[in-house]
Amino acid sequence: MKLATKLIHGGPTVDQQTGALGVPIYQISTYRQTSVDHFSKYDYARGDNPTREALEDTIAVLEGGTRCLAFASGMAAISTTLMIFSPGDHLVVCDDVYGGAYRVLSTIFSRMGILSTFVDATNLAAIEAAVRPETKGIYLETPSNPLLKVTDLRGAAAIARRHGIISLVDNTFMTPYLQRPLELDCDIVLHSGTKFINGHSDVLCGFAVVRDTELGRRIRYIQNAFGTGLGPQDSFLTLRGVKTLKVRMDQSQQNTLKIVAWLKQHPRVTAIHYPGLPEHPGHVIHNSQADGPGAVFSFELDSYETTKRLLENSHLAAFAVSLGGVESIISYPAKMSHAALPKEERERKGITDTLVRLSVGLEDPDDLIADLQQAIG
């Protein structure tokens, strides 16, 4: 079964009691039991909910994993999964990891004795050099947010295998439609399902998908203990959204290629970061492990004044946090996704005051280009 068909038929698609073409919203907190000695599978919704389970089964199939766990947000998925590590453990993390992940690693998990070393993950030698005897995991994001840097996932997974450690990959930008890290020998895939997987800017959710059933059991235990699971209403909406993932990604990606080609010629654009460009440093590696360049890119402008004008005068592309919706969203990493980083750290990573990120939606690309033109001036 090809992925386009799995999006529609990969998980539970029919309600067994009524024949409804979709799993209903089980908006319930507790379940009646009939035996003192043998509780049913469902007892309390913090642990299990049929609507959430249907979504988890679907995402597990799409990523090629043994188990998926759905969370109340992308950060809930990341933070809960990182709790499989213990005080004294060490992680190697890609240098321009999402700002929220950087924040919990550097200010919360560090206080718990789980330390991180941030490296340029485009360089496999840098990843290998950062591994210590106490290293237990390699945390990657490719393409990264917001500079779209590309990590060789096969090479990084091989390093993890040699050292007997866990590889984790944030796959939010690509979704399982375009990239499946588990097939490249990685151990855990993380998503902010808020973005492309749901695709309608009306849900917060996150996912952790595993290859190994024991890893899944460990993450599930922590999820249940912390109560970070996704609610039934959001599970239902995300199940609805994922069915159109292919058509949305195909159109958004097509629009992106046209807009990037136009921006390349604009005199006020000084750089574009997008793996779909042949001149992108990670272009060849990305094409070897993904099925397309995606619908998110970042670009730099000639001044802060131009940047401010673009952000405040764009009408079709909403100046907002997040990405992956049917509408285009333009954001400002220095004050949005990476605001948690100190200014000197942002600038060291290349997240300057003239960098913007554009998530391209389903509008007509000619209209988006005209809007960008009037906004830039």
Please outline the helices and strands:
Blueprint: H1 3-9, H2 50-63, E1 67-71, H3 74-82, E2 90-94, H4 99-109, E3 115-119, H5 124-130, E4 135-141, H6 153-163, E5 166-170, H7 175-178, E6 188-192, E7 206-210, H8 213-226, H9 232-242, H10 245-264, E8 269-273, H11 283-289, E9 296-301, H12 304-313, E10 318-319, E11 329-331, H13 343-349, E12 355-359, H14 365-376
Helix pairs in contact: 2-9, 3-4, 10-14, 12-14
Describe the structure using short key phrases.
globular; Aspartate Aminotransferase, domain 1; 2 domains; 15% strand; Aspartate Aminotransferase, domain 2; alpha/beta; 14 helices; 377 residues; 5-stranded mixed beta sheet; 7-stranded mixed beta sheet; 12 strands
Give a description of the structure.
- This protein is of the alpha/beta class and 377 residues long.
- The chain is 38% helix and 15% strand.
- It contains 14 helices and twelve strands.
- The chain has helices at 3-9, 50-63, 74-82, 99-109, 124-130, 153-163, 175-178, 213-226, 232-242, 245-264, 283-289, 304-313, 343-349, 365-376, and strands at 67-71, 90-94, 115-119, 135-141, 166-170, 188-192, 206-210, 269-273, 296-301, 318-319, 329-331, 355-359.
- The chain has a seven-stranded mixed sheet with strand order 1-7-6-5-4-2-3, with helices on both faces. It has a five-stranded mixed sheet with strand order 8-9-12-11-10.
- β4, α6 and β5 form a beta-alpha-beta unit.
- α12 crosses α14 (365-376).
- The longest helix has 20 residues, at 245-264.
